[in-house]
From TrEMBL:
<feature type="domain" description="RRM">
    <location>
        <begin position="471"/>
        <end position="545"/>
    </location>
</feature>
<dbReference type="GO" id="GO:0003723">
    <property type="term" value="F:RNA binding"/>
</dbReference>
<keyword id="KW-0540">Nuclease</keyword>
<dbReference type="GO" id="GO:0005634">
    <property type="term" value="C:nucleus"/>
</dbReference>
<keyword id="KW-0269">Exonuclease</keyword>
<dbReference type="InterPro" id="IPR013520">
    <property type="entry name" value="Ribonucl_H"/>
</dbReference>
<dbReference type="InterPro" id="IPR000504">
    <property type="entry name" value="RRM_dom"/>
</dbReference>
<keyword id="KW-0694">RNA-binding</keyword>
<dbReference type="Pfam" id="PF00076">
    <property type="entry name" value="RRM_1"/>
</dbReference>
<dbReference type="InterPro" id="IPR036397">
    <property type="entry name" value="RNaseH_sf"/>
</dbReference>
<dbReference type="InterPro" id="IPR012337">
    <property type="entry name" value="RNaseH-like_sf"/>
</dbReference>
<keyword id="KW-0378">Hydrolase</keyword>
<dbReference type="Pfam" id="PF00929">
    <property type="entry name" value="RNase_T"/>
</dbReference>
<feature type="domain" description="RRM">
    <location>
        <begin position="566"/>
        <end position="644"/>
    </location>
</feature>
<dbReference type="InterPro" id="IPR035979">
    <property type="entry name" value="RBD_domain_sf"/>
</dbReference>
<dbReference type="GO" id="GO:0004527">
    <property type="term" value="F:exonuclease activity"/>
</dbReference>
<dbReference type="InterPro" id="IPR034922">
    <property type="entry name" value="REX1-like_exo"/>
</dbReference>
Length: 736
């Protein structure tokens, strides 16, 4: 059964802000896996990366987190499908930060005016047929017995053979049982020194199929050592002085350790077996397995880096580590067997080796360049690349990449624009080309008329004022001489208060309270409307403005947001409680996964509320029932379903504090009509959401899809971006 890919990310709270480098880290690993020094990203994890069908990145050009929450109701598909979200730090040069420096893609305009960039690669049917690996093994995946050397191949490559003239006195491992595709693999490597007799073993390593070291032993040569070959072997005279183990001891131990159907794996294993003076009938030689033309062979160090993404035989170390080499050879054989010849051929190792050699030549040229070069020559020399483009690596491995949209990259990494191209045209091309590409970047845009800085400023003000209204409640009426302290205490149990003022324009006093989190304001409306506070039966309501008429709809949709599944909000905590205290108090709750304690981003002090994330939705429902009315350290708790994910909580805080700590509440008494441009913008956003929905539904299962609102970083100011991501599965929603 095919393994499905999964994605996990701890994005609750302050950790939900991701830098451009961290995004690049994710894309590189998703595209390349463990090859080319790509590693699991530090902030999230992709399980079964090798089973990813592809990676699709949708970039919403010059849009920010601001757009997502201003048009939250219009982005119906995005908010219902993608479980993982993160705030994206804006970048001054987003294309370079996304694709990596040194992007070697060249844009070309199609007849429709689209900018479409694809890696120029020959189709599999014509390209791979010429590959030595395919010519030797065919295209289909086979069992390990298909890759063991035949007797003729062993003779041709100087392996010790039973009865051969040069093998007199050699010891057989006596592993003569019939091999099957489930026979155990063992990695073997030896280090040798030069003696009066020739090459003799000085160290032997054996690892099992799990990479566990079974043997790592120094061996004393029989003859006088002429050259220890310390640079390669790491062996010195001092190391061998106390050693008592002889070759015959190692031969005996190996015979006992290897089962009768064992298959030995090594790189140029014939040299190791000759030095061990042992005969073994079933071997996989990785120097021959990864076949090259004209009898040439890849070095183990290169294969480990290109195929496994591992650095071995580092220059900093004294000599080779035989255990490391044995394990590398074993893992290379396992990779070949598991992935099959076609996958290995698609790595295009010859091209990678050529690129590596060119890089070395270029580096040596830079090191050897004499001082005193003319200024003009220095100007003509391209600057060193600090971050290579993983798309170039994909091209070198023969995998097709796609860049499609109005904003393309020219050879310098700068954006080019084709304003005549519509989002509909881009979508149609994407539906045709994405299935043919391993890595795709699709760019949509609202159009230049909606990207002006003054429109951004207006959009920011509208979002800020609506959020302020949603965070604000009015409570009253109260008696003339009511106790403000009692009111503050009661409403403070719903969550952190940013400001509290008395409204005196009314016949009886009212109180205007602005909270720091949406859940607190909603909890106050739900739990204190109609309650008796400070001796008065009060009404609790939000401000009535044109922008707030759909507030209840928005609250309901936020509650149903996929990112809030299994997350509850708890208020009324004593500020003296630490995170450790809370972990202990809430430990009895079933399936509790994460506890997030919001902090003031200026003072660092935590608030009197927290968010609890559960592994199962039902566990969150049960926890709500248990916590409401719960008393903790003398304080009565209140709770409800979460409305604002961690990244939104941080963003709200920044919005409210951008214009000073108090973030004055703006109250619009005058009913304002939506302008024609904003009505049109809503329609465009809704259509854009529909385009993304259509593209998403066309993707294969196990495709990683990331939607990016890049944010804005210009001289006029900056706006944080937003990322939404998930791996598509059959059920339509992106996987956890």
């Amino acid at each position: 059964q095919e393994k499905s890919c999964h994605l996990s990310a701890a994005l609750l709270g302050e950790d939900s802000e991701i830098s451009q480098d961290q995004l690049y880290e994710l894309l590189k690993y998703a595209a390349l896996g463990k090859c080319h020094s790509a590693a699991q990203p530090s902030w999230c994890r992709i399980y079964h990366q090798s089973h990813l069908a592809g990676v699709v990145v949708v970039v919403l050009h010059e849009m920010s987190q601001l757009h997502f929450y201003r048009f939250y109701l219009q982005f119906k598909h995005l908010r219902k499908v993608f479980r993982h979200r993160f705030t994206l730090a804006p970048s001054a040069n987003f294309p370079v930060s996304l694709y990596g420096e040194g992007t070697n893609l060249k844009s070309r305009n199609t007849p429709q005016g689209l900018t479409s960039t694809s890696s120029e690669c020959i189709t599999k049917s014509s390209n791979l047929q010429c590959d030595p690996i395919i010519q030797r093994y065919g295209e289909k995946k086979q069992g390990l017995t298909s890759y063991t050397l035949t007797l003729e191949e062993q003779k041709k490559n100087d392996y010790p053979i039973e009865g051969s003239p040069g093998c007199k006195g050699y010891i057989s491992t006596e592993c003569d049982q019939q091999r099957t595709d489930s026979s155990p693999l063992f990695g073997l490597d030896c280090e040798m020194c030069l003696t009066a007799k020739g090459n003799e073993v000085t160290r032997v390593s054996l690892v099992d199929a799990q990479g566990q070291c079974l043997l790592n032993e120094l061996v004393k040569p029989e003859s006088t050592v002429v050259n220890y070959r310390t640079r390669f072997s790491g062996i010195t005279k001092k190391m061998l002085l106390p050693v008592k183990t002889r070759l015959s001891d190692i031969q005996t131990r190996l015979k006992k350790m290897l089962p009768h159907d064992a298959v030995l794996v090594g790189h140029s294993l014939n040299s190791d077996l000759q030095a061990l003076e042992m005969i073994h009938p079933s071997v996989i030689d990785t120097s021959l397995l990864f076949a090259r033309s004209e009898g040439r062979r890849f070095k183990l160090k290169f294969l480990a880096k290109a195929v496994l993404g591992k650095e071995i035989q580092c220059e900093q170390k004294l000599g080779h580590d035989p255990t490391e080499d044995a394990r590398a050879a074993l893992e290379l054989a396992q990779f070949f067997i598991e992935q099959g010849p076609t996958k290995v051929a698609e790595l295009n190792l010859e091209m990678l080796l050529t690129a590596e050699k060119l890089a070395e030549v270029s580096q040596n040229k830079a090191v050897l360049q004499p001082q005193g070069c003319g200024f003009q020559e220095q100007l003509n020399e391209p600057p060193p690349l600090s971050k290579p483009c993983f798309l170039d690596c994909l091209q070198m491995t023969g995998q097709k990449t796609l860049l499609l949209g109005k904003e393309g990259l020219d050879s310098s990494g700068l954006c080019q624009s084709n304003p005549s191209t519509s989002n509909k045209q881009i979508l149609q091309r994407a539906l045709e080309d994405v299935p043919l590409s391993k890595f795709s970047i699709i760019q949509f845009s609202l159009g230049p008329e909606y990207l002006a800085s003054h429109l951004h400023a207006g959009l920011h003000e509208k979002v800020r004022s609506k959020l302020t209204d949603m965070l604000t409640i009015y409570a009253g009426p109260f008696e003339e001489n009511f106790c403000m302290k009692s009111v503050k205490k009661e409403f403070g149990r719903c969550g952190p208060i940013q400001s509290l003022t008395v409204v005196t324009e009314t016949f009886q006093p009212y109180v205007c309270i602005q909270y720091e989190v949406l859940e607190a304001a909603q909890l106050a409306v739900e739990s204190l409307n109609g309650a008796e506070v400070a001796g008065s039966c009060i009404k609790v309501q939000r401000p009535v403005t044109a922008a707030m008429l759909d507030c209840n709809v928005l609250i309901k949709e936020l509650e149903l947001d996929v990112e809030n599944e299994g997350v509850i909000y708890v208020a009324g905590l004593k500020k003296s409680l630490t995170e450790t205290d809370l972990q202990e108090e809430f430990s009895q709750l079933k399936d509790l996964e994460t506890l997030f304690l919001p902090k003031d981003l200026q003072s660092g002090k935590h608030r009197n509320c927290c968010f609890l994330k559960f592994q199962k939705t039902q566990s969150a429902v049960d926890a709500l029932e248990a916590i409401n009315g719960w008393t903790m350290k003398g304080s009565k708790l209140r709770s409800r379903n979460a409305l604002a994910p961690g990244h939104l909580w941080r963003w709200i805080w920044q919005m409210n504090h951008r214009n000073g700590k108090q973030g004055k509440h703006i109250f619009y008494e005058k009913m304002e009509q939506l302008s024609d441009s904003e009505q049109d913008l809503r329609k465009k956003v809704k259509k854009l959401d529909h385009h993304i929905k259509k593209l998403y539904r066309s993707l294969q299962n196990n495709t990683l899809c990331i939607v990016l609102f890049p944010g804005v970083n210009s001289t006029q100011g900056s706006q944080s971006g937003l990322g939404l991501m998930g791996i598509k599965h059959d059920e339509g929603r992106s996987a956890c």
